């Protein structure tokens, strides 16, 4: 085992305590013979010059001030065996570093299973229980479901069940399970629906490379075979094939036969959504993160886009200033405070003409004036500061998405020119089939472990899903587990962070109009009607994503 069994032997620990106390007791000076000079007292132990006060060892029985204040004093003049039990045990652990707080019952299984790690820290206040959780447009890299009921029904699918699951996915077959499946392991319908929920479509398909995520993936791709990196002809063939697949996806999206798809490059990610989803009545494309160079290139191509988070922040500041500022003096004070905080006001367009007062004073030759480049850099300072941040999210709507399509196809900076990803086209991810796409499945495995509940250990079962988990897959899996696990399970969700900002509410549309549009125009997109209803709602998670999801008594709670 990976732990010390010393806690099973309290007598040994007590003997060790008594031995330490005997060593620490001052030695009584024995009477010296007549005429003999008394011995000099022993010099104190030399302090280690390389140790700090925090990590310096303390004498046995010494307590910190807080510990000393909260504990009763030991008996005076008593023997070591007369000391309280807590005093006998405390010095044994003194030299050990401070332990972290004990994990909750839900996270104990993560520490006991191999190759599992704790999820990202989440807020303490969960949401109120609901029968449906909000749509999460971020891409998950890993899901870990936990339940007191076994996941044996998800293991070792038969060949016929696997084939039936693929057929149901390609035919967009709706699977409606009962609220409670009595024998999940014997339910062929459940196992086929599980296989159906794991399917997604990918382009390009290079089995020896991990094509998602692409941002920060140089280390994982480095050292792998990439014959196209030095072959321009091969790069052109790959990009030509990629352009055909990209155009096919957009045509499916425009016809509402594909609900959404992702374009994952080595610098940014683009989410295309069909009209009727996320509260919008037109096709939308969100890009994150962006840079000043990318935004400038889009402007030069005539692509109209907006920066919703920047505009929202600017509007919020204006409203706050209108409420808080009542006089001109207050205005000047707030301007001074903003300058102290490092936030410069937005530069005006007449900065080039703001030095005319120097000529009026006759000192224009003595004062060095900033050149045009300095003025331009000052104007672009605020725009550059938000590069590579969630606030740089760009929104493209309507017919401008087709212009964005052509821009991305012809953009030379879309593909890396150096490094492990040189010459490799972006990754296309879609929940439905498209031209040039390859059918892929998420990896699933079940794990059995022990979870600590108070003073005992209980069996805890987990199901791990690894791969690019898109929104429709998360909803399909939770729907299956709702029936198979009797309405009680929890899940730790691991998000690809650059995509978390896709949950921002970008459109203020009428929910009634949006629902009518979805029910009319999106019945053939290949998703379950309940999934379409969820994805049609306006996003409510903001710049965050769901990190923890729990179901109790068929009601969801979640934390972001």
How would you describe the overall organization of this protein?
Residues 1-83, 316-354 are annotated as: Disordered. This is DONS protein. With 560 residues, the protein is of the alpha+beta class. It has helices spanning 10-24, 65-70, 85-89, 105-112, 159-170, 188-197, 218-221, 232-254, 292-300, 308-324, 328-340, 356-361, 372-379, 381-385, 400-410, 471-484, 511-521, 529-536; strands at 140-147, 199-203, 260-264, 269-273, 284-288, 305-306, 394-397, 427-430, 438-441, 443-453, 456-469, 489-495, 548-552, 555-559. The strands form two sheets. An eight-stranded antiparallel sheet has the order 6-7-5-4-3-8-2-9. Strands 10-11-1-12-13-14 form a six-stranded antiparallel sheet. A hairpin with a 2-residue loop joins strand 13 and strand 14 (555-559). Helix 5 (159-170) crosses helix 6 (188-197). Residues 28-38, 59-63, 65-125, 338-353 and 509-514 have low confidence and may be disordered.
Produce the secondary structure layout.
Elements: H1 10-24, H2 65-70, H3 85-89, H4 105-112, E1 140-147, H5 159-170, H6 188-197, E2 199-203, H7 218-221, H8 232-254, E3 260-264, E4 269-273, E5 284-288, H9 292-300, E6 305-306, H10 308-324, H11 328-340, H12 356-361, H13 372-379, H14 381-385, E7 394-397, H15 400-410, E8 427-430, E9 438-441, E10 443-453, E11 456-469, H16 471-484, E12 489-495, H17 511-521, H18 529-536, E13 548-552, E14 555-559
Antiparallel strand pairs: 1-11, 1-12, 2-8, 2-9, 3-4, 3-8, 4-5, 5-7, 6-7, 10-11, 12-13, 13-14
Family: Belongs to the DONSON family.
InterPro entries: Donson
Protein name: DONS protein
């Amino acid at each position: 085992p990976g732990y010390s069994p010393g806690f099973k032997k309290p007598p040994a620990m007590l003997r060790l305590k008594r031995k330490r106390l005997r060593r620490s007791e001052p030695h009584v000076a024995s009477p010296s013979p007549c005429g003999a000079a008394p011995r000099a007292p022993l010099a104190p132990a030399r302090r280690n010059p390389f140790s700090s006060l925090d990590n310096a060892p303390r004498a046995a029985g010494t307590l910190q001030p807080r510990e000393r204040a909260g504990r009763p004093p030991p008996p005076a003049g008593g023997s070591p065996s007369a000391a309280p039990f807590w005093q006998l045990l405390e010095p044994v652990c003194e030299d050990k570093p401070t332990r972290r707080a004990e994990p909750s019952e839900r996270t104990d299984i993560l520490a006991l299973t191999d190759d599992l790690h704790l999820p990202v820290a989440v807020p303490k206040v969960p949401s109120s229980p609901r029968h449906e959780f909000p749509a999460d447009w971020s891409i998950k890299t890993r899901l870990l479901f936990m339940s007191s009921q076994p996941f044996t029904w998800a293991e070792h699918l038969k060949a016929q069940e696997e084939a039936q699951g693929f057929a149901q996915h390609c035919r967009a077959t709706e699977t409606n399970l009962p609220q409670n499946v009595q024998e999940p392991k014997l339910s062929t319908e459940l196992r086929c629906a599980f296989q159906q929920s794991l399917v997604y479509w990918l382009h390009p398909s290079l089995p020896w490379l991990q094509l998602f995520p692409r941002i920060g993936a140089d280390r994982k791709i480095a050292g792998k075979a990439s014959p196209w990196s030095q072959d321009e002809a091969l790069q052109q063939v790959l990009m030509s094939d990629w352009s055909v697949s990209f155009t096919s996806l957009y045509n499916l999206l425009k016809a509402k036969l594909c609900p959404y798809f992702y374009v994952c490059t080595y610098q940014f990610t683009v989410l295309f959504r069909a009209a009727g989803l996320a509260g919008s009545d037109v096709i939308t494309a969100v890009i994150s993160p962006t840079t000043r160079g990318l935004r400038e290139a889009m402007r030069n191509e005539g692509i109209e886009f907006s920066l919703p988070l920047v505009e929202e922040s600017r509007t919020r500041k204006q409203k706050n200033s209108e409420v808080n500022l009542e006089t001109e003096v207050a205005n000047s004070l707030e301007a001074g405070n903003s300058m102290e905080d490092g936030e410069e006001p937005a530069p005006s367009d007449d900065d080039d003409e703001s030095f005319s007062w120097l000529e009026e004073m006759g000192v224009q030759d003595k004062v060095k004036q900033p050149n045009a480049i300095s003025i331009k850099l000052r104007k672009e300072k605020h725009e550059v500061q938000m590069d590579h941040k969630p606030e740089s999210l760009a929104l493209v709507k309507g017919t401008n998405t087709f212009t964005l399509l052509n821009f991305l196809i012809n953009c030379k900076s879309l593909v890396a020119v150096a490094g492990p990803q040189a010459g490799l086209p972006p990754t296309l991810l879609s929940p439905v089939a498209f031209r040039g796409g390859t059918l892929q499945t998420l990896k699933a495995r079940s794990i059995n472990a022990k979870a600590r509940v108070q003073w005992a250990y209980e069996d805890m079962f987990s199901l791990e899903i690894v791969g690019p988990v898109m929104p429709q897959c998360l909803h399909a899996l939770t729907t299956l587990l709702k029936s198979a696990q009797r309405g009680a399970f929890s899940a730790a969700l691991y998000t690809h962070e650059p995509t978390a900002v896709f949950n921002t509410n970008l459109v203020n549309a009428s929910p009634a109009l949006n629902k009518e549009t979805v029910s009319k125009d999106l019945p053939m997109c290949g998703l379950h009607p309940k999934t379409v209803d969820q994805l049609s709602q306006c996003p409510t998670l903001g710049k965050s994503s769901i990190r923890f999801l729990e179901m109790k008594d068929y009601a969801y709670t979640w934390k972001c």
